[in-house]
């Protein structure tokens, strides 16, 4: 068993965490590293908790509205999902030209991976991510800004790396946030310096470091070929003393992890388990509790995970949650996918109904088409504008105009 710390992968744990959220305190302290952030994102990302439930909690406990900071931040999550639904895999490429026309490196620097750059907030963030699978949003922005603008590393390389370790890793939220920092999904680069760190995380003060400079200097570096090199011990010493952190599990996965899944081969005899019953396919972003009278079949698509590997800690989070909400888990390689499709079309094996929840993650988002089954629509908090909105402020304004008020949204959701 892998220690997941404060992030127990269950709906009960999510609801317990939600009950402790105070929107007023969140709004006042969320930018500080020791602020009262919700830390609900791992459960939200993997479908154990909905944005509607978070909003309803705030509405019932403090009477908050659409203008409240908590709802505003939930709106950012829905904005990123909106863009992903509209443009698909294009979120994995520059949404607009970057701030520097030169060529960014694809490889992450060794000193960065070892948490030995000499910049205290960056080194702390890297090690904390490896250890916990979570980072405060401010720390995520600092890491992205440091890598892209000061070390000239491709935002895509950094985003893929961080996505694999985050328990709450979501392609839309993660990759579009990196693009926002990089300036390829915004109109300017996001920059930070030692003064900014001192304000929001004094325990990570880095006066005298390479980022102890003005924003004008940092802007000049971001828009040119200049870089800030690390100051510290040699990489050879770092490797011995710190190591690179836990690795990401590409496909095919470690055999021990595969055995933990308790997976099996799809065949006609086994498919009789759901004949005549309701069948729900459960992917990693829809890990809600079981429904009575429904057979829950967990599905893992190796084509996705070979391209976007996860850390062992994240796999543990997902697999433990799947064990709670699924009757069986199958690896949908080409053979199993074909056998499952044939079983769902066999009159002797056909379920009374078949469904799968929506996700925009590649491969998983196409399963309903490939298996010819019903896909449930996304569970949204805010009404979605029909046309693509590339500005959050315009998206949120349109969505709020369509919603009317948070009271109306909650009343609609509960009636």
UniProtKB/TrEMBL annotation:
InterPro entries: Crypto/Photolyase_FAD-like_sf, Cryptochr/Photolyase_FAD-bd, Cryptochrome/DNA_photolyase_1. Its cofactor is FAD. It comes from the Bacteria. Residues 72-211 form the Cryptochrome/DNA photolyase FAD-binding domain. Pfam families: FAD_binding_7. SUPFAM superfamilies: Cryptochrome/photolyase FAD-binding domain (SSF48173). Keywords: FAD, Flavoprotein. This is Cryptochrome/DNA photolyase FAD-binding domain-containing protein. The lineage of its organism: Bacteria, Pseudomonadati, Pseudomonadota, Betaproteobacteria, Burkholderiales.
